Amino acid sequence: MKNITKIFTLLALTGMAFASCIEETFPESSTVTSEQVGASAAALDASMSGVPSQMCQGYLIYGSQEHEADMAYPALKIMQTEMLGDMYPEGSNSGYDWYRNWNTGAASCGPTGWVGWLPWRTQYMFVKSANDIISAVDTESESCTDEMKGYAGMAYVCRAFAYYNLMTLYEPKDNIYTNCKDVLGLTVPKVTENTTGEEAKNNPRLPHDEMIEFINSDLDKAFDLLANYTPSTKLYPSLAVAYGVRAKVALWDENYAEAGEYARKAIETFDGTPVTRAQWLDLNTGFNTANQAWMWHVHYDAENMGNLCNWTGWMGSEADWGYSSLTYPSIDRSLYDRIGDNDFRKYTFIDPAKRDFYPYESVRDDEWFNSTPDYLNLKFRCVGGDWETYSVGGVCDVPIMRIEEMYLIDAEATGATQGVSAGVAKLNDFVKTYRDEEYSCEAATLRDFQLECMWQKRIEFWGEGEGWADAKRLEAGSMQYYTGTNAPAAIFYVNAKGIKPHWNFVIPDTESQSNKALLTTNNPDPTNVIQGAKATINEYYPSTL
Question: Which among 50, 73, 131, 285 could bridge 289 via Cys, Cβ 3.0 to 4.6 Å?
Fold first, then answer.
């Protein structure tokens, strides 16, 4: 039991003591060997239990209150929503929004800034946790049970998912604002359970095709290892989730046939149904409690969280304990206007006409409601409606993957492989059946149809960030300074053609210093390349090359 306790502690806090993602050595007194970890299913269970805790650990990287966006995986969801320009801080002072540089690109986006450092460090800490478990299980051994194989399979999914996130963030897209010609097609260094310290000192960025092959090899292993094992909780990735990650990877790779195939496999294997209207709008459980649509999620524990660095404290507008009570996270007006008036997803954002538009319900009183800014989100509710006590109202679930994403991937993939009309039919069927019976997509070209699929993701997953990788892949652009914009300040007036330049994340200096292969292959610094104060309304910012 002593070793198992050590394992749990190690995996729950994995990486906090490391200066770089490639360091693999632990003090002898604070860890156990792979043989000890893999000695029993009980030990593996203790190891794996630390992974979901790590994925929502506040102050994961620094271990203390250094940066309020140091929120592990949930931070990525907020970053991606801000990068899209789909969310603004509509409180009295946008400076309380620690995520705004992901939206604006105005500061800290270079090699010494935290815009690239936080997600890099976070995702590689997840890689390290997965590597530890993978290295501990000999899946070829006759003594390896289906349960033990299952733990290895889950670890392979976690590693594949982390590398997918790293790839979408750091693989550059060509654009008219920064010169990426020398690094196009490069992703990130591959660090596995077999990477040595010497190899890590000269570990180049993997080309796109090689990274896709590597991720898919991990997922192929996961498919086999999870075939006879079902996780006890959706805090762990299942076979359906593995299929879902494969669908996401294939979509980024523009392998639409494979994206559709695996999205359908995920739907069939998971056997869930989309979030209902009643669940979406519930005052006490709305987007804070896992349900039949959630394939994979994390969970906050009262003993492991503070009032600031947690999901509800950032995204739950009714909460009175975190930054959300200062920033008032709100939807971009142009995205709000895309939602049909009969689409119940629209009712989680406060219309300028307030209750003359819809009879909104809130656990807060009328004085609070009447003082709220236009377009404020009510999507993420406080647990049990408790808006006063963070250790109650903030003890929530946060989705990592929902079944709705698979339906939307399948629709786009169908349009790309079987013709636009076939894709339109699938998209219309999904939205009409589950969201707005009056919806009608009438796209005639593949480009218009793919963009509409992206917009539907940005509506469906507002605050969850799932549309961001699509916007980067499709080079959908950003228009935040337009007639009637609710962007709170000029710094947010980012009208970018193609992509925002800071969508190409910069590898941190700390990594380049320890890995010489990165010294000459970093992405260009996009900091303040587009200056909102110099923007022209309703027009894209001109090329800076």
Answer: 285
Element (H, E) at 355: none
Token digits for 214? 């590597």
Nearest to 390 by CA among 283, 291, 316: 316
Any bridge partners for residue 402, and if so which? 294
- Using an 8 Å Cβ cutoff, are 159 and 130 in contact? yes
Residue 186 has φ and ψ, to the nearest 5°, of -100, 140
**Pairwise CA distance, residues 374 & 92, whole Å:** 13
Percent of the chain with pLDDT strictly greater than 70: 93
Could you give the angle at which helices 208-225 and 146-170 cross, rounded to 10 degrees? 160
Domain boundaries, the chain: 68-98+273-462
Phi, psi (deg, nearest 5) at residue 303: -75, -10
Structure-token pair, residue 465: 């960030």
DSSP state at residue 172: -
- Residues whose CB falls within 8 Å of the CB of residue 80, separated by 6 or more in sequence, listed in order: 102, 465, 466, 467, 468, 469
pLDDT of residue 39: 53
For residue 126, give Cα distances in angstroms to 13, 118, 155, 226. 10, 12, 10, 20
- The residues, ordered by sequence, that sit 6+ positions from 326 with a Cβ below 8 Å of its Cβ are 91, 92, 93, 96
Burial grade of 391 (CB within 10 A; 0-12, 13-18, 19 or more)? middle
Question: Which of 359, 368, 279 has its CA nearest to residue 328?
Answer: 368
Residues 6+ apart with CB under 8 A from 363: 283, 284, 318, 381, 382, 385, 386, 387
The pLDDT value recorded for residue 42 is: 81
For the residues of 38-66, what is the DSSP string, one character each? TT-HHHHHHHHHHHHHHHT-TTTTTSSTT
The pair phi, psi for residue 349, each rounded to 5°, is: -130, 135
Q: How many CA atoms lie within 13 A of 135 on its CB side?
A: 17
Instruction: Please state the separation of Cα 316 from the chain's center in Å.
Output: 17
Lowest mean pLDDT among 31-45, 79-93, 105-119, 457-471: 31-45
pLDDT in tens, 107-138: 999 999 999 999 999 999 999 999 999 999 99
Structure tokens at 430: 């999904």
Q: Would you say 259 and 250 are in contact if contact means Cβ atoms under 8 Å apart?
A: yes
Provide the pairing of β-strand 87-89 with 397-402: unpaired
Whether residue 357 contacts residue 351, with contact meaning beta carbons closer than 8 Å, is answered with yes
**Is residue 525 classed exposed, middle or buried when 0-12, 13-18 and 19+ CB atoms within 10 A define those classes?**
middle
Say what angle helices 2-12 and 41-55 make with each other, to 10 degrees: 30
Work out the number of other CB atoms within 10 angstroms of the CB of residue 475. 14
Specify the residue for token string 């009980």.
Answer: 42
Distance CA 349, CA 362 (A): 12
